[in-house]
């Protein structure tokens, strides 16, 4: 008897007429309503779109959460720990509020994310600056909602990790 959380996928291999049964652990669909302003990192990354946040084990709570389950590169992130955004005296939460925006670190990250994932941290920053954080988050919910299952699409994957639907670039 199969666990109710498993999905059975059956396919035919035409060359050998072999029936292949593959059992995959179904992933829970992440509700887009979980995306909120607290999930937006100083760099403009929506932490709710990250595979670290969407994974089921050792879930990362995002840049504003506890560092316990964060990947090492996030724990030591120089943008997250920039003196300009960490200062308790200043009310600067995002990179666009800095006189050095966009700094070399943000430009480097922006280039990597535009190239690998089709997302621009600089554009995210400009959108937050022009529209406000709440409007940016509302647009992110629509932009990253899977049309197939309604879950949140991971920025680091080409397909929805819940249902496998191809992400629109």
Low-confidence stretches: 1-27
Count of helices? 6
Task: Tell me the number of strands.
Answer: 2
User: How would a crystallographer describe the biggest sheet?
Assistant: 2 strands, antiparallel
How much helix is in the residues?
25-40%
Structural class: alpha+beta
User: Order of strands across the biggest sheet?
Assistant: 1-2
Shape: globular
Strand content: 5-15%
Terminal residue distance: 39 Å
Mean pLDDT across residues: 75
N-to-C SSE string, H for helix and E for strand:
EEHHHHHH
The Cα radius of gyration reads 19 Å
Ordered list of secondary-structure elements with their pairings:
Blueprint: E1 6-13, E2 18-25, H1 51-54, H2 72-75, H3 83-86, H4 104-117, H5 121-131, H6 133-143
Antiparallel strand pairs: 1-2
Helix pairs in contact: 5-6
Report on this model:
By secondary structure, this protein is an alpha+beta fold. The protein has a domain at 29-143. Helices cover 28% and strands 9% of the residues. It is built from six helices and two strands; from the N terminus they run ββαααααα. It has helices at 51-54, 72-75, 83-86, 104-117, 121-131, 133-143; strands at 6-13, 18-25. Strands 1-2 form a two-stranded antiparallel ribbon. A hairpin with a 4-residue loop joins strand 1 and strand 2 (18-25). Helix 5 crosses helix 6 (133-143). It is globular, with a radius of gyration of 19 Å. The protein starts with 5 loop residues before the first strand and ends in a 26-residue tail after the last helix. The model is unreliable at 1-27 (pLDDT under 50).
């Amino acid at each position: 008897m199969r666990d109710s959380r498993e999905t059975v996928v059956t396919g035919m291999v035409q060359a050998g007429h072999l029936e292949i049964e593959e059992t995959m652990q179904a992933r829970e669909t992440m509700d887009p309503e979980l995306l909120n302003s607290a999930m937006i990192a100083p760099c403009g990354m929506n932490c709710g779109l990250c595979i670290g946040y969407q994974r089921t084990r050792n879930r990362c709570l995002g840049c504003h959460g506890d560092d316990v389950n964060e990947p090492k590169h996030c724990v030591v992130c120089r943008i997250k720990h920039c003196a300009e955004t960490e200062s308790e005296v200043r009310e600067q939460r995002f990179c666009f509020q800095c006189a050095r925006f966009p700094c070399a670190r943000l430009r480097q990250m922006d280039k990597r994310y535009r190239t690998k994932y089709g997302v621009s941290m600089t554009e995210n920053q400009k959108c937050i600056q022009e529209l406000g954080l709440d409007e940016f988050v509302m647009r992110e919910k629509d932009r990253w909602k899977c049309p197939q299952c309604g879950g949140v699409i991971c920025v680091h994957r080409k397909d929805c990790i819940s249902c496998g639907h191809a992400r629109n670039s």
